Amino acid sequence: MVFKHQSFHEGPPVVETEFPPEATLEGAVSDALGAVGGIDATGVKVVAEGATIILTGSVMYESEVARAEEVARSIPGVTAVRNHITTGKIA
């Protein structure tokens, strides 16, 4: 048996990924929101569309809305964040 290295048109195959997989980004953002201080992200949902992160849900304070967006933007691979988080104040 003769072993021949894989090739594509006489060159090795090249795999190019423009964006990390969406599930990887969602997981990274969710993990970061859960680990960072200054935000209770139990009511926040994270969805990735390509390299764009969409944040929905609610938090208690307005400062947590901005903090969640800041954390999401800090994740490598995230190119944009659409922040639809609302504040739910207890009366």
What is the alpha-carbon Rg in Å? 19 Å
Low-confidence stretches: none
Give me the count of strands: 3
Structural class: alpha+beta
CATH class placement? Alpha Beta
Strand order of the largest sheet: 1-2-3
The biggest beta sheet, please? 3 strands, mixed
Order of helices and strands: HEEHE
- Average predicted local confidence, pLDDT: 85
CATH architecture name: 2-Layer Sandwich
Shape by Cα distribution:
elongated
Q: Indicate the proportion of strand residues.
A: 15-25%
Describe this structure in words.
The chain has 91 residues and is of the alpha+beta class. 29% of the residues lie in helices and 24% in strands. It has helices spanning 22-35, 62-73; strands at residues 44-49, 52-59, 80-87. Strands 1-2-3 form a three-stranded mixed beta sheet.
List keywords for this structure.
3-stranded mixed beta sheet; alpha+beta; Histidine-containing Protein, Chain: A
Topology record:
Layout: H1 22-35, E1 44-49, E2 52-59, H2 62-73, E3 80-87
Parallel strand pairs: 2-3
Antiparallel strand pairs: 1-2
Brief characterization of the structure:
Helices cover about 30% and strands about 25% of the residues. By secondary structure, it is an alpha+beta fold.
